[in-house]
Specification:
The relative contact order is 0.14. The protein folds into three domains: 114 residues, 2-Layer Sandwich (Nucleotidyltransferase, domain 5); 102 residues, Nucleotidyltransferase, domain 5; 69 residues, Alpha-Beta Complex (Actin, Chain A, domain 4), CATH 3.90.640. The longest helix has 24 residues. It is of the alpha+beta class. A hairpin with a 2-residue loop joins strand 7 and strand 8. Helix 4 crosses helix 10 and helix 5 crosses helix 7. It has eleven helices and 18 strands.
Length: 333
């Protein structure tokens, strides 16, 4: 009777937790800071992310998930346990039922790793839901209707695209190119053109500030500080929005190829539905300026940005919790 069921968007960049009856109650970076000498965890989440690029050799700020899947099982368990305890705020409540979203392209071994990590973190029962299904539910798409709904979720590690009908995924594609690759592309471009090394936090700041996928009339520039590769001294340059867009062209093209591949494999009847309804974009990548325009021009279908793209997957896990009894009855029938 004291159980608090929760849904978790276990992302490469951020982890969001949805509590049944309360909505999203936690959003923190998926980062763990570890003291290598003492083999102990120093910080998790926001506090750990602040240490990235600023720690001595004895301390490492680690992302336990890479490309949407678990890269470090032990640290993922520690991180999940921390977020679950922080959400429930008590060790005396009964173990929660947890719905966790995962990329649609993960292997059975990777699925088991996520489930085991949640078990070790204190779950009473664990259910895994495919990320694009959670994103579609959270975006309010009519996934249980006998018609095609298409969603593209651009997270930190993966971009998930799927066509959904009658409550199940008909066609899907998982591309391991997303927000992290955007940051890497920006950092690589600046290093190659200007001989300036910048960290991932600086690259992310550039992306958020002036990043775009399609040209716009209102474009600016930003001053970037880093370390010169020539002499190792601090230096700064000015980067324009057009340059950032050029840096992002390749990873964006890879994601769009994933969308086109999914469209090519979609049954004709559902393709007709998508031509009318279009594609809905969720995740942090949906916030990149002009991404809807770029995808629409490359695919020829209408593209919509979800109302709260960052929250869609977490809210989708919450809706899965709310629909548990109804869906269970449907499965029995």
């Amino acid at each position: 009777m004291f159980s608090k069921d929760i849904g978790i968007d276990l992302g490469t960049a951020n982890t969001l937790v949805y509590m049944k009856g309360k909505g999203i109650v936690l959003c923190e970076p998926s980062v763990v800071a570890v003291d290598i000498k003492k083999d102990s965890v120093l910080a998790v989440g926001t506090q750990a992310k602040e240490m990235i690029g600023r720690t001595p050799d004895s301390i490492r700020a680690i992302r336990p998930l890479k490309d949407g899947v678990i890269a470090d099982f032990e640290l993922t368990s520690v991180m999940l346990s921390h977020f679950i305890r922080k959400t429930l705020k008590s060790r005396f409540l009964s173990r929660p039922r947890i719905v966790i979203c995962i990329p649609s392209g993960v292997t059975q071994v990777e699925r088991r790793a996520v489930s085991d990590a949640a078990d070790r973190a204190g779950a009473r029962e664990v259910e895994l839901i495919d990320e694009p299904m959670a994103a579609a539910l959270g975006a309010g798409l009519p996934v249980f209707e006998p018609a095609g709904s298409m969603v593209l979720d651009i997270g930190g590690g993966t971009s998930e695209v799927a066509v959904i009908s009658l409550g199940d995924i008909v066609v899907h594609n998982s591309v391991r190119v997303a927000g992290d690759k955007f940051d890497l592309a920006i950092a690589s471009y600046i290093k190659k053109k200007y001989g300036l090394s910048i960290g991932e936090r600086t690259a992310e700041h550039i992306k958020i500030s002036i990043g775009s996928a399609y040209p716009d009339d209102d474009e600016g520039s930003i001053t970037v500080k880093g370390r010169s590769t020539a002499d190792g001294m601090p230096d700064e340059i000015t980067v324009t929005a057009e340059e950032v867009r050029n840096a992002l062209a390749q990873p964006l093209s890879t994601i769009i190829e994933g969308v086109l591949d999914t469209l090519e494999r979609t049954p004709p009847e559902l393709s007709a539905d998508i031509a009318d309804r279009g594609l809905t974009v969720t995740g942090g990548g949906a916030l990149l300026k002009g991404i809807d325009e770029l995808i629409s021009r490359r695919t020829g279908i209408p593209v919509h940005i979800a109302e709260r793209p960052l929250d869609c997957v977490a809210e989708g896990t919450g809706k899965r919790l709310e629909l548990h009894k109804e869906l269970a009855k449907t499965a029995v029938l």
